[in-house]
Amino acid sequence: MRTRTPALTRRQMLRAGGLSLAALGGLTACGATNATAPVPGLAPGADPWRRFAGTTINFISENTAPTAAIAANLQPFKDLTGINVNIVTLALPALVQRVALDLAGGQSQYDVVYADPYQVLAPYAAGLSDLREFAADDSYPPLEGGFEDFIPTQLQAAGMFGDSDAIHALPYDCPTMIWQYRKDIFEKHHDSMRTDLGFDPTPSAERTWEEYFRIAKWINDNVDEVPYGTGHQAKQHDSLMCDFSNVLWSYGGDYFADGAAVGLRGSEDPGECLLTSPESVAAAEFYRRLVSIAHPGSLGWDWDGVGNALAAGEIAMAPNWHEFAATNEEALPGLVGYAPLPRGPVGTANHYGGTGIGISAMSSGARRGAAWLFVNWATSTATQLSNLRSSAGGGTPTRQSVYAMPEVQAATTRPTEMPNMLTEEAVSIAWAEGKIGLRPKIPMWNECDTALFTELSRMLAGQKTAREAMEDATSRIDGIVARGWVA
Amino acid sequence: MSADQTADQNTAARSRDAGDAGIGPTPVAPSARQHDRGRTGGITFTGWMMSPGVALLGLLSLIPLVMLIMMSFSRVRLLGGLQLEFVGLDNWIRAFSDVELWKSWVLTIGFFVSTLGVELVLGIAIAVVLNRLTRGRGLLLPLILLPMFVAPSIVGLLGRYMLDPTFGLYANLLQGLGFEQDVLGNPVSAFVAVTLMDVWEWTPLIALITLAGLSGVNPSVLEAASIDGADEWKKFWNIVLPSIKPILLVAILIRSMDAVRYFDIISVTTNGGPADATKIIPVRLYEAAFRFFDLGYAAVIGIMMLALTIMIARLFVGLLSEKETH
């Protein structure tokens, strides 16, 4: 027996389609909920550190040294506040995805966010709370030393965006690129190098990039302890832009007009790209030449690759982030020295890659208050000092008061329990005004960065000349900037 | 046949087509109407049985598809909730005029052809050898199939370590042979390396499917061919290969779908570099969607990929149907 039922008519089909679209609209609208519950008040006489006891918050961070140290030593925070912190650590690209999707969802799964200035802060500043609101609220424990205790350039670079005075993040780490070299090799061959090259090869801010090139070549030809003089993070990756930028700035080139301000405070409209300037092209040409004599692995290395190569005795020197000092000291105790990067025709530039931690604007209720207590604690003097000693990672302090501590000052020379402090002399020069290198803090930087390192990679592969690479990068960056940014 | 008869038949054929397409009532020849009533008159018992599955499929596939199409005509805002800002054909025009995107398409086709070609030749060769083995086949087969059970991202990591210029085994061997460059740092060798990693992982699948097909070849036909004086190559080319063609098409179809969305290995080895030499379309799609959050543009790339996948699937399904008809 056959059952007869009415067919789906066109009208029914249209109705079903309409319902689907309505459902889609509903789904789309669901994400727009951003109502936030108020933070519970402080009861009279209550301990401000324990007002959110029992609350659980989530902290999402890049898998960096300070977070490793904090994750290994969270108990003091729990004892102090009674707050549970779940820490999620990821590679930076994965972190950026999670944060963007979390902000889109409007539910604030992550209360505390590792706010990379270029990939999180600049594009999603509106999704981060203004921390001045918490610092000015007497019901919270005071921010020790105030915002002024943070190194001023770092507070602006890692915590602020555009013309606004809002502080979206507190400086949390401060990796900076410096010259890392095998002290033993430089000492052993010092005299022969000096005789052959005609200058003192000891790494310092007085050396030029041209001299760096000649030292690397000399080591290639004359030293048996390591196969190559220099190594670079020249993989088609963010690291290639970081490595190249040191040379670019020292040659007088820049990404945009008023590059220092665009780097320090950021902008949504940085203007035209300047990579076709003669200085930028000269920098690119030099960089191509430098990588051509570097360890062949350079074309496949990011910063970890360079760090491993130095530790494995494959290269005698490299520009790399100063937080690798802890790894270097473990692999080659006492054998690695640090100096500011060489200078170009206009001076030295040392790429700063620091990041802050902020609070999601969607975080609400007790979690919002608990998030501030955690941010306050995680960036405090005591925690930064403790991180420096941590065997789990080792921090890179962002407070001036930490660097002024006698035990920290004492740790700048060997033997030391705080290996990252061995770089103190080099980074203190690197952070000086005019010597710190800041990439453009623009919302669309991720895409501009990709355009640049792809063109640089083509140049290093011999597919383009330095001029062609810079022209094509400029054209792509101008197109990306012209399209603007919607968050 | 008279002109009137021909016209009637054409009308009937048109109305059948229209009925299939769900278009409104058209005068049809009585026989055609009776024939189609079961299909177009209402949802049959089978239809009702299938409806939960179809509804679930609709929920899981159609809504995202509609959303994808809507996004391709929009600029997508994320902050504070998903919002679509209609921009007309902007994303489509940008995609069709994006030279970098077309370079990636060329690369994708190159990758598709080379992986599939090498896997097919090697897979058939391995299957033929295994089919002839009388001893040790039980031991050899699992060993050959082993790569298939490794997660693609682990294959990528293994490849990366094997090719590391500092401590990689293959890199050292190549250095011994005079190839001093970093394999993953050179555009040509990086492309070859990621292709070979895919070949290493998925050739066993082709071999396995082919082996199943070979067991169905009629031995008496082969014996007859031998008696007629056919050599091994002739027997393979004229008897074995035509016999296993349908099953080979299935293997190619499965691998084609995979090759179009190849991502994991490239992501952990070269991430599209050097010089964009391994930036095939899935890598570019990922980049547009989840690194730049340019979701409207990514939707266009996604739809292009979907169209290519459907074309490939239809091509192979068509070839299979043709084979069955013959």
Automatic annotation (TrEMBL), chain A:
<protein>
    <submittedName>
        <fullName>ABC transporter substrate-binding protein</fullName>
    </submittedName>
</protein>
<feature type="signal peptide">
    <location>
        <begin position="1"/>
        <end position="31"/>
    </location>
</feature>
<dbReference type="InterPro" id="IPR006059">
    <property type="entry name" value="SBP"/>
</dbReference>
<comment type="similarity">
    <text>Belongs to the bacterial solute-binding protein 1 family.</text>
</comment>
<keyword id="KW-0732">Signal</keyword>
<dbReference type="InterPro" id="IPR006311">
    <property type="entry name" value="TAT_signal"/>
</dbReference>
<dbReference type="Pfam" id="PF01547">
    <property type="entry name" value="SBP_bac_1"/>
</dbReference>
<dbReference type="InterPro" id="IPR050490">
    <property type="entry name" value="Bact_solute-bd_prot1"/>
</dbReference>
<keyword id="KW-0813">Transport</keyword>
